[in-house]
């Protein structure tokens, strides 16, 4: 189309058309365009990818799958009751959100059970549900580009407890050869990678009560940055055994009767157990295969109070809440619901309410905030994962899970805590708070898909 | 009974890193410089020393049967628990 030009003569700018160059130059252009394409394909101007949740699974005191758990949350049902395990009569605290009548044989074979502590069993069962829902098969390239980040505070606590009993109490001098691979904090993560052939970045984080939120925040950032296409993430805890509860009892922050977050009559936390696992997937990847997107993960923030090993700081919590909204490019007025850390201790609940009030200003009186720990108990390292289910329910079903056990207003917790009964409401954006012992904070932000 | 008092003063003084002579029975845990965590640790030490179980929940210290408002109140409460045990 151009008139012939002699060698070395430049094509006038107006005549240059990309895609029409030939030879070596074509390759260079192709490479440049591919690199450019990577930036353009993501929806964010800064080149970051959007992150979809395409699967969710759980085991906890309210149910052994997501539908039964969400149904219990809608009904405001309490999963907390008398604990059942060996030596429970030697405890002062005898209630918890226990997964009742758990028989590992129902889900796993003998060879698996030998290697799976209860926290791993919970994780694998939750993951089965999540992966099945996502419809993903991790073959070839996708397996290489997918990984696992999980949270747990105590890992295989039941295995520690049983084997200490064997050597100390029963005086035996031999333990099972798989004690170490069973109890290690990364056991659940590793078994999950093996189960699905996930060959990418995989690890476990332990930040006490914020473990799951930290794990999910890291998974979010790995998919957002393009480091992974899919991450299985969430967390698990199985601390309801004699040694586990005895240790918590010592701190004197546990309630003997109920978990009543934000109520003036609250008298402490109640432990739970279980797992929550989610599929975080590159948005474009999910769209391309026609996946059902449950919600979008849009922001995450983490920080340290650097102040006290057990007492929470309102400033640290506020900083993290604000940080998550900034990361998500979310205005405070957009947030309709917050799943609170809401442990039911005197210290946490008033500190958290002060932080929310400061972070949201006038909007604090318009948003809803509830603590589902009142129903499933505090799953410690797994709690953020189970609580994310309430966030997804709010966005997807327009149902806000209640704070049950609420008896009396506390002027220091003067927010709409959705007392005792679930509520129907349309919300576009939500936050999930986690403020751990050790002053480690992690807040995650979701939007309706 | 002075034995119980002296032992409690010793425990609390150790927790506060003070000399026992610096403590007075009318002082509150705050006056002595003991925070909630220090209080929980002192109560554990008291339980161990007297082989008693102290009903104390850090969430509602004021509602507890065990009065911790002053050092003297703690001594009186422990004396009661020790007497009940006997």
From TrEMBL, chain A:
Residues 1-23 are annotated as: Disordered. Its main location: membrane. InterPro entries: Beta-ketoacyl_synthase, Ketoacyl_synth_AS, Ketoacyl_synth_C, Ketoacyl_synth_N, PKS_Beta-ketoAc_synthase_dom, Thiolase-like. Keywords: Cell inner membrane, Cell membrane, Membrane, Nodulation, Transferase, Transmembrane, Transmembrane helix. It is found in: Cell inner membrane. Residues 48-448 form the Ketosynthase family 3 (KS3) domain. Residues 1-18 have a biased composition (Basic and acidic residues). It comes from the Bacteria. Proposed to synthesize NOD factor fatty acyl chain. Involved in the synthesis of a highly unsaturated fatty acid moiety, which forms part of a lipo-oligosaccharide that is responsible for host specificity. This is Nodulation protein E. It comes from Paracoccus versutus.
Automatic annotation (TrEMBL), chain B:
Keywords: Phosphopantetheine, Phosphoprotein. PROSITE patterns: CARRIER, PHOSPHOPANTETHEINE. It holds the Pfam family PP-binding. Residues 2-82 form the Carrier domain. Gene3D superfamilies: ACP-like. This is Acyl carrier protein. It comes from Paracoccus versutus (Thiobacillus versutus).
């Amino acid at each position: 189309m151009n008139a012939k030009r002699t060698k070395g003569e430049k094509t006038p700018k107006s005549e240059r058309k990309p895609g029409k160059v030939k030879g070596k130059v074509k390759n260079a252009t192709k490479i440049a365009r591919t690199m450019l394409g990577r930036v353009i394909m993501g929806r964010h101007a800064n080149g970051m990818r959007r992150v979809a949740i395409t699967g969710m699974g759980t085991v906890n005191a309210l149910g052994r799958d997501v539908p039964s758990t969400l149904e219990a949350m809608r009904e405001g049902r309490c999963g907390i009751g008398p604990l059942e395990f060996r030596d429970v009569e030697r405890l002062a605290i005898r209630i918890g959100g226990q997964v009742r009548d758990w028989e590992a044989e129902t889900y796993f074979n003998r060879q698996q059970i030998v290697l799976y502590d209860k926290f791993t069993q919970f994780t694998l069962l939750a993951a089965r549900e999540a992966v099945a829902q996502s419809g993903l098969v991790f073959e070839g390239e996708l397996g290489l580009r997918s990984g696992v980040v999980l949270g747990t505070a105590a890992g295989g606590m039941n295995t520690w407890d049983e084997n200490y009993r064997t050597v100390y109490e029963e005086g035996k001098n031999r333990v099972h050869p798989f004690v170490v691979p069973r109890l290690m904090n990364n056991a659940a993560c590793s078994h999950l990678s093996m189960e699905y052939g996930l060959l990418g970045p995989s690890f476990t984080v332990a930040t006490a009560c914020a473990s799951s939120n930290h794990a999910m925040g890291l998974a979010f950032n790995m998919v957002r940055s393009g480091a992974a296409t899919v991450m299985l993430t969430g967390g698990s805890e199985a601390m309801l055994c004699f040694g586990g509860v005895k240790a918590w009892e010592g701190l004197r922050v546990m309630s003997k009767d109920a978990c009543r977050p934000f109520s003036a009559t609250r008298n402490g936390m109640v432990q739970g157990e279980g797992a929550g696992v989610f599929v975080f997937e590159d948005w474009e990847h999910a769209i391309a295969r026609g996946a059902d997107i449950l919600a979008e993960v849009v922001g995450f923030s983490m920080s340290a109070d650097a102040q006290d090993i057990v007492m929470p700081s309102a400033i640290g919590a506020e900083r993290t809440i604000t940080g998550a909204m900034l990361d998500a490019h979310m205005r405070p007025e957009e947030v309709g619901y917050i799943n609170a850390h809401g442990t039911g201790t005197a210290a946490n609940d008033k500190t958290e309410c002060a932080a929310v009030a400061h972070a949201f200003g006038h909007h604090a009186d318009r948003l809803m905030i509830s603590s589902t720990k009142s129903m499933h108990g505090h799953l410690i390292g797994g709690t953020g994962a189970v609580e994310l289910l309430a966030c997804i329910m709010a966005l997807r079903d327009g149902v806000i899970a209640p704070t049950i056990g609420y008896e009396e207003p506390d002027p220091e917790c003067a927010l709409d805590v959705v007392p005792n009964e679930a509520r129907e409401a349309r919300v576009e954006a939500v936050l999930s708070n986690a403020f751990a012992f050790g002053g480690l904070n992690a807040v995650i932000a979701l939007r309706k898909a | 009974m002075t034995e119980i008092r002296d032992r409690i003063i010793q425990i609390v003084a150790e927790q506060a890193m003070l000399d026992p002579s610096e403590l007075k029975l009318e002082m509150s845990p705050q006056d002595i410089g003991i925070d909630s965590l220090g209080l929980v640790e002192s109560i554990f030490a008291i339980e161990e020393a007297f082989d008693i179980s102290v009903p104390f929940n850090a969430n509602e210290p004021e509602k507890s049967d065990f009065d911790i408002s002053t050092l003297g109140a703690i001594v009186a409460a422990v004396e009661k628990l020790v007497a009940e045990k006997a």
